[in-house]
Amino acid sequence: MTPASEPRWLTEAEQDAWYAWRRMFPLVNAEIARDLGQDSGLSEADYDVLSVLGQTDGHRMRISALAELMRWSRSRLSHQLTRMEQRGIVRREEVATDGRGAEVVLTDTGVAAITDAAPLHVKSVRRHLIDILTPEQLQALAEVGEVLRHRFGAARKGRD
Amino acid sequence: MTPASEPRWLTEAEQDAWYAWRRMFPLVNAEIARDLGQDSGLSEADYDVLSVLGQTDGHRMRISALAELMRWSRSRLSHQLTRMEQRGIVRREEVATDGRGAEVVLTDTGVAAITDAAPLHVKSVRRHLIDILTPEQLQALAEVGEVLRHRFGAARKGRD
DNA sequence: TCTACCTGGTTGACACGTCACTCACATAAC
DNA sequence: GTTATGTGAGTGACGTGTCAACCAGGTAGA
């Protein structure tokens, strides 16, 4: 085999960005997740599901619709719901119009959980991320997110 | 109980930043991890361990030193090494000077794995992140990373 | 020496995510 | 109606990460 042409290794500036990227997310997210667990007994996954359901009419949604909204795989959501159901914060219900379908419903416990957790969570997010950065830095983050979102939206073609 | 004072909810700009933050990292990392798996049969965790060991003298390191360098828990590293050892890319060896200690060593297979994987990985990182962003955006990321690193360095006090 | 503590490292239980597979119901083609 | 195909959802195996408990070997003080 002829040797592959030497790849374009990262410049120093690019390495800085890449290492920052790799480091900062786990760092911040671990702190926020820890807070969430200690303050409210919830994982980030729990919180995400609860907060979406908490904003829906009747605190219920078709499972596949929820998965699509959250951009989770159905499998992932199914596993998550199983764990949440065992803890009594959500409940699955069959849906009359389609024998295959099912809905998730927040239980009263679930409603209480997300209601109690939300203010503490905001505080935590502020403390570990938002309030640390300048408005310019926040805007830069949003901008980068936007660029990447478009890039991947395009890459995934019709799948969206 | 008296109701807690209304928390400072996120402004729209802050929400944009927060959602971007939450979304972009899994998005990009999933792509890069997928590439790594398909191109080289490695997970990101594998790659990280291999690339550190690949740069050390004799392709070996004390396990606790490796954990500290990577900022992994010893437990996490131990689990990871067990899996890697089963696949033959690293090997554990006892160390003579300390009856408790152990070293990890790259096997020949491991050396080959990281050597082959590195150029492909750089290409993937460029494609999914670095080459998509402008130098200004890369710099903004590095800067944000720096701010957060300091913030958490301070928060963790002497633990570093 | 005996004891107490520290340290390096492993282990087990559990939460989480992915993948591939399965199963039941729905729908369209014939 | 029967058959093929699609779709909603769950399951099992496995990789990964955390936490707490454990164990063996070192170290220091009585």
Structure description:
- Chain A has 160 residues and is mainly α.
- Chain A has one domain (23-155): Winged helix-like DNA-binding domain superfamily/Winged helix DNA-binding domain (Arc Repressor Mutant, subunit A).
- In chain A, 64% of the residues lie in helices and 8% in strands.
- The first copy, chain A, has six helices and three strands.
- The first copy, chain A, has helices at residues 12-40, 44-54, 63-70, 74-86, 108-128, 135-155; strands at residues 60-62, 90-94, 102-106.
- A three-stranded antiparallel sheet of chain A has the order 1-3-2.
- In chain A, β2 and β3 form a beta hairpin.
- In chain A, α2 crosses α5 and α3 crosses α4.
- The longest helix of chain A is centred in the N-terminal third of the chain and has 29 residues, at 12-40.
- The model of chain A is unreliable at 156-160 (pLDDT under 50).
- At the A-B interface, α1, α5 and α6 of A face α1, α5 and α6 of B.
- Chain B binds a DNA duplex (30 and 30 nucleotides) through residues 43, 45, 62-64, 67, 72-80, 82-83, 98-102.
